[in-house]
Amino acid sequence: MKSFIEKLNSKYVLQEVVYQRDDLVFAAIKKENAIDAITYLRDYEDFTHLVLMSCVDWIEDGKYQLLYLLHNPILKNDIGIKVYIDRENPEMVSAHHLWKSIWTYQREMHEAFGIVFPGSPRLKENFVVEGWDEIPFMRRDFDTHEYAEKTYFPRGNRKSNDPAEYMRKKLYPSQPVTAKQRKDDK
Amino acid sequence: MINKFLGFTPKKEMLPSQTVTPDTEIDLSSHKYQKIWLGPNHPGVTGNMAVELTVQGNTIMKAQTHVGYLHRGFEKLIERRLFVQGFPTSIRMCVAEPDTNEYFIARATEELSGYADAVPEYANWLRMLSLEMARLQGLLRGVPGQGGTFALGIGVQWGVYLRDLILDRFEELTGARVYHMFIIAGGVRGNLPEGFKARMEDNLRDIDDFIVKIKKLMFHNSIFKTRAKGLAVITPDMVDKFGIVGTNARACGVKRDVRKDNPYLYYDQLDFDPPTATDGDVYARTWIRWQELIQTVDLIRQIMAKMPETGDIRCKMPNVLNWKIPKGETYVRLESGRGEMGMYYVTDGSDKPRRINLRGPSYNHAISVLEHMLIGADVADVHAIMVSLQTCPPEIER
Fold it and tell me: Which of A158, B190, B227, B232 is the most buried (most CB within 10 A)?
């Protein structure tokens, strides 16, 4: 795996290479090289199976991290290609020409994070939510608790607890909650 | 020629075109086509999802899967919870085999916090037993369920009874029937009760009888054979293109099984060979699943024979209320009854996960594959195709 990563690094400059397990490596590639590298991995290095496409919101860095996880069924190993894109104007080149399954992921990313993949089929169709007029629901700045409070009718007699504090009281009833713990919970 | 159903000779344009392709142009205003919604609440649909069909006569010209009827935002909710609180939420993401999600979160958190090698051997055997029991109860529903789509309802009733017996064993092992919360970070939650193995062996003997009976009921039945043979064929070149995994891939000759390819737990110590077929149709997929039923029963017997008599059930882990995991990411996978399942797990150094993403086999099987398979199929075969692909909407919506 190491020699293969070095070879890939000489072709496309890799960043943040992490050997997570013997059969799993994560590496970041520049946005403009990403689809090229993925096509190369699929066609020349036998990473023919697209396991997953995912997105992580790094709100503090102002970036979305896209992940293309590819599996090599011959050597039985995986590579996770990470691509950082701008959070304010999220747009990525579509890969729907590479796998028939990828447009579903792109459709989900568009709905859940607001990422645009120009040319991807049925991108604007609803995936799991209908008539959604809030910010995309998987973004870190979307607060589920606040949304539930605002949207749904308040139910009487309903008590809500802070989970960590509730569990601590349940498990260690005699131990007083310290100011530091309260600060940590917040 | 006079059509015996219509009573007159239909014009050529009234008949469905012989070769329907995804590119066939459909003009609804021509009145040659009709839209039918199958689901979201329909006895033949797997779970709550809808398939929007455009038909010409009985032939499906276009199909679109609609999901969202079960969306509760589990992945988002888990981002707001402590690592330990992710367990009860995550298992609700997969109704068919919830134990798989417990394993993912346990394994991912152990790996990212450096406890992967600390889990006791006995606990890992118990994890395997629980995962194989989950596969067995899923197959007891799935295999006769395929017969049910061809009106062989009695098999479903036998299967439900036997599945309940396995749920009884789950109840005495974990205290719950469907959502078990048995596998936790660091090990498992409890030990085998006294006499568990003997009672399980009794149930497995009942299942042995059922395996013979269901073979006669389904595979010796001419209706089942006639309708399932050659229906919805998956070819080997479709496997990577559509992301097809598990029994659906093995039924067309692509031998992929995570238990063999990337062994986890102690699967490399068990003696088994995943069955394969070449036809890739509904019949082949059901046949593979029937063989997996035999294999799973055998695997449970092997696990019970090979596991140590006793041992530690979990290792010492940090206090779950103050457990922080360093920044990192991983992907853990296993072979569920429906194929490869996995979870992408990201941590950021805090006491809550940054992001989790479940990769369920249905994500591709129920959307891109099903929509492709249904084109040109008969309306009466939709349920059979859907069940044969083992679509499960909760793992799409998460």
Answer: B232
